[in-house]
Design a protein that fits this description.
Length: 610
Amino acid sequence: MKKFLPLNIGPFSWTMFGLQFFYLYQVAASNDMGGLSFSLWSLVLIPVSMFTVLLFFQFLSAAFSKSRWGMVAASFVGLAIYDLVIGYQFSSRDLANWSVIADNISSAFSMEAGDVILHSFDHGALWYLFGFLVLFFGFELRRRTVSRGRQEAPHFQKAIVAGVLYLVFVLLPMPSYDPLLNFFRSIYLYYQPSVRMRVKLPEGYVSTPVMSDSFLSGRFTDGAKPHVFLIVVESLNFSSLGKRANGHEVTPFMNRLRKEAVTVEPFYGNSIQTAKGHFATFFSTIPSISGKTYVKFPDLKIDSIASVLQRSGYRTLYFAAHHNRSFDNEAPFLEKRGYSEYLVVKPFLKPEDESSKMGGWGVEDRVFFKRFFDYFDTRLASESGRPQFVTLVTIANHFPFNKMQESRRVIFSKPGSIRENYANSIHLSDEGLKVFFEELDKRGLSEKSIVIVTGDHAFPLGEHGNYHLESGYHEESFRIPFFMVWKGHLKPEKINIAYSQMDIGPTILDVLGIKGQKTNFTGVSIFSKREHPLYLIQPYGKHLAVVRYPFKYRFYTATEHEFVYDLSRDPTEKHNLSHEISTKKLELFRKDLKHIYFNQEVMKRDRYVL
């Protein structure tokens, strides 16, 4: 048996063994990385993780030993993957996960995505990678340092033994401190979901339309048909409202709007991903657990708020700040589901708008709204008073939040962190919303228009040591504002019952007095004052959550662990109550969780019925 084991451990493999030890030291020294507990179990996991790193590179040396330079190339690729997953972890404060790549591969090669990718890695780790590659390439040329670990025959059998043993560690249901193994395990979990996610629809099942008048408040009956403007602001945090930074109000206009509008606190985005937030908002349905619905299910038969309003006599328009109509397959999907037009702002820009560009993320929101109204004026003139439903989607307030002109950095002239960049950026978005309402008022449309302002998702700003959406699953990654204004018709009101993006569509139908609709919508009107479960999808870390405020249930699909928090007493989600709450309440949350899985299967099999 000994001759089938890859036992020739060269200097390169020993170096990777040492790098794993250095990595563990860095994790232990970084409190915001979670640290190491140094319990008896962790003291077992530390040497095991070093062994699995060594085993992986022994597998590479066995698999490619027939060719000196083939083995060198394979070893360097292994080093690159190891370094990149660590670089991502030290930047995002979370383990690298395959789902981040798989769910975004369709847009990964755009200029904007390249900028996001670059800012998703710790730059020090990238320099380490470059240094090690140059160093070992030089040693290989002079002393064959890397290829000295080549295995004696039988190469294929040795590779099989090492590969199978490594695969066993990948599949074992135990935690690991090996970043490479965790990354490969995330690939397995992405394509082989947990047992609880395996839901089968009954034979011949088709969903029954669930939207009914019981989900509405019944308080709006005059049948008025004002224009409806649904504004979805990129990365709009609830936590920024009312804050001051460096002597400035961060969001002065929204602070005022908060007092003049119908607001919901707490209000949730149903995911941390733009595509999922848009889907929840426009379709009032739980977004897909993995993948982007517009891309993964392009032929899905489903109702949107636009399609319902279109049937009620509204002309529908989607006006986007991002220049690419086909990004995430959004325009083709929405144009078949209720939107008469899908336009981008780029063709409407003027030469003087050049200075307001935010890198590859379009123009400042104030310019976006001005150019929209340039177009809207011509639209109104030709529509003979027909009511308009307009969805306006901004893009400028996008990670890494640092693309504005230096002269436009109002809060921090020389920002030194993501938090400070975000303050500058969201301040410009706030200014843009002020411009929108001013332009609406100039045209005498304020009393003839319902305006809803919300976000596509929130953004964590270090509350739990995290500055990346991909790894966020606490409240700060989901809480967004909700404002609803209809001047002269809706009095200012603060609703303290929890709602989410999925409730926007039913709320619009409620206020317009549109009844008798049977759709797939699973939200309820905010004016119904009806408490109901809110479904939160964290697709990258695979955290699924249900909020029955003030209680929040979270299920971590990678380990199938459950967490329950009382947000009224524990807003930072530190004390897990899953073993303290009643069995009845826990079973209710598990039933809600099952509904997320069931919806996923309905979506997968296209069983929504309109």
